[in-house]
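> run fold LON peptidase substrate-binding domain-containing protein
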Amino acid sequence: MPALADLPTTIPIFPLPGALLLPRARLPLHIFEPRYLAMLDDTLKTRERLIGMIQPRPTPDGGEALSAIGCAGRLTAFQETEDGRYLITLTGVARFRLVNELGGFTPYRRAEVDWAPFERDLGPAEEDRGFDREAFLALLSRYFAAEGLSTDWSSLKEAEDEMLINALSILCPLEPEDKQALLEAPTLQTRRETLVTLMEYALLGGGEERMQ
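> ok
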């Protein structure tokens, strides 16, 4: 794992609504816009190969701003398609606080970031000592049935706590603001409790009410 001092203070950022990356988790992405193809080419030339995922958020005047917190991932896999697009995988390294978006001549966006509030992300996987896996999986089964989702239940039962909770936080069809809440959760236990609340809310019909 890298040390805090090894991380660059300026990184390319990829604002993508609803996309969530978490430390030590993996996020597959399909890159096809020219500006992000340029970002990918430039990222491959760097030692760290980091891309910062961050949620855009609407402003009261109808514009768009960036969330205060994002997560950077290291480019760990990529495949080029015949028509020049890329299928890539980012593996989460650490969250960051946005300090300042930078100008410049690149077609993609870049930002100065602060890693210090999330130094813990660079350590080993977190544990969730209060995790009742049986009750969690029972709730998850009801949620998946309601959402029409399917999964490999044997793999879920065998997954480590952090891998299970983070993978579900990434994959579940939640609203962008819910994904941001999961990202900003200070501990794995808090993230799991937030995910449980969101699934319970959806089962009560909260998701439908929000869309109306």
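The mean pLDDT is 91.
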